[in-house]
Amino acid sequence: MPRPSRSAPLVHPERDQIDLLDVLHALSDSTRMTIVQTLAANPEQACGTFPVQVAPSTLTHHFRVLREAGVIRQREEGNRRWSSLRTDDLNDRYPGLLDRILQASTAP
Amino acid sequence: MPRPSRSAPLVHPERDQIDLLDVLHALSDSTRMTIVQTLAANPEQACGTFPVQVAPSTLTHHFRVLREAGVIRQREEGNRRWSSLRTDDLNDRYPGLLDRILQASTAP
DNA sequence: CTCCTTATTCGACGTTCGTAGTACATCGAA
DNA sequence: TTCGATGTACTACGAACGTCGAATAAGGAG
């Protein structure tokens, strides 16, 4: 099936359904960590504007992993898909976790 | 090869060599998370005394993943292998990370 | 010494993962 | 309308993962 656009809405877990192990797994990949770091600096960003060197289909896969883990939220606008960190939801469910991980990701 | 005991020492990464993505990956498995939670409550514990329902060889595998990620330290004493959290090393390299993850792991 | 406990290595199995190529649908501009 | 840009779905493949059983080795108790 091609891109469903308006027919099939994007799947996002509820705040209370976010699973810690899924979050940790989602963040344990270098490409996805780069995506999250980029989103931490830019509140909202289109898919194709991330500094990663992977094929577009691979990028789609990583965005889905992050989205289904509850780390990011995606919304469609025209032809683009905008991604943003679910900072509030994550801070509410796992206080301070995201900040610590992002801080740790900058260690040498 | 059977257990090398004294010949091949256990492999532990140096404090500065601990990689965040390896840590997150190590903690993204439920069995290993249970191990870490148990070690957080008990300072040192023998391998066979953890509340997990897996085969001994599987347990050995999980301990190796945690050890090579730098999450735990293992030392041999007689016939037993004692495991402990590398709390100081982790706190020094990634301040607060372990505490946040452990705190998050208790969320309903 | 013999036996049991502890924990390992090895090999095997299914599953999941990261990656890419191809085809395709949508949008916007020329 | 045509065309390019954007991003996805599907498919496939090799690698890594979680799991286990069997064989093995070392230590401790009898």
Automatic annotation (TrEMBL), chains A, B:
Annotated signal sequence range: none
One Pfam family cited in the UniProt record for this chain: HTH_20
InterPro entries attached to this UniProt entry: ArsR-like_HTH, HTH_ArsR_DNA-bd_dom, HTH_MetalResp_TranReg, WH-like_DNA-bd_sf, WH_DNA-bd_sf
Gene3D superfamilies assigned: Winged helix-like DNA-binding domain superfamily/Winged helix DNA-binding domain
The UniProt record lists the keyword Secreted: no
Highest taxon in the source lineage: Bacteria
Protein name: Helix-turn-helix domain-containing protein
Keywords on record: DNA-binding, Transcription, Transcription regulation
Domain HTH arsR-type residues, every copy: 12-105
